[in-house]
Design a protein that fits this description.
There is one protein chain. The chain is mainly alpha-helical. It has 7 helices and 2 strands. Strands 1-2 form a two-stranded antiparallel sheet. Strand 1 and strand 2 (150-153) form a beta hairpin. It is rod-shaped, with a radius of gyration of 38 Å.
Amino acid sequence: MVFITTQSLNAEIARQQRMAKEIANEQGKISTGHKINVASDNPQDWVQISLVGRQQSINTAWKDNLTFADSRAAKASANLGDINSLMTRVTDLLVTSTSTAQGSPGREAVAQELEGIRQTINDLLNQTDYQGQPVFDVTNTVNVPVGAGLSVEAVPTRESIANNAVGSRSLDQVLADAITAVRTGTDEERGAALNDARKALDHVIVQQSVQGVRSQRLEDISDRLTDSALALTERRSTLEDTELTETITKLQQKLMTLEAAQSAFARISRQSLFDLIR
């Protein structure tokens, strides 16, 4: 005859409650996709997951900064390309001016177009984006943080492009002198203006080349951040993600064990009750 005491009854109930809790925990792993949902599940891995998560947040911030830098670099490259095209047009116009007579409508048309180009280049150099951010940094370069101890220069300063285009003369001064030479200058002065315009164009081309180096560096950093993000995601997945096949197998085993325990407990309880009645 089997006797069930209060102590054995409470012990069996507690055991089955623990099994039910374990089953609920396995079900939680399946529903959330995470095998660690609270620190007590695995304290060591929980710490590592937290550290990986923090680094992922930092990487996201760096990636956002890099996106901002890329946007600025692309706009600066576009403006430099426009300035290059305009300066190329300046050289063409100065060549044209040598074949037109002094004071002729053709000569004045050239001067008028040069004035328009001068203003457009000035606008391009001083342009701001939709956020009010200058396309080219003013006076000092603004470095953008994109990594641990790493900040990059996305765009040149306006002064590096506009100033010292030909010797100590700015782009604007070169254009102003060219306009004067077209309107009232001698052949020699127009020839000198053409030579200066070509030197100014070379200056712009050099600035474009330097900007290309900046853009390439940003692209290289972007690739490294992408690789880092993938590595962190894989590491976190290894630590955190549920192995469905393994977890489902454990869940089924625990469910069968609990069902068997509950069935056996119910039979023994009924037998003991009948024994007491008899």
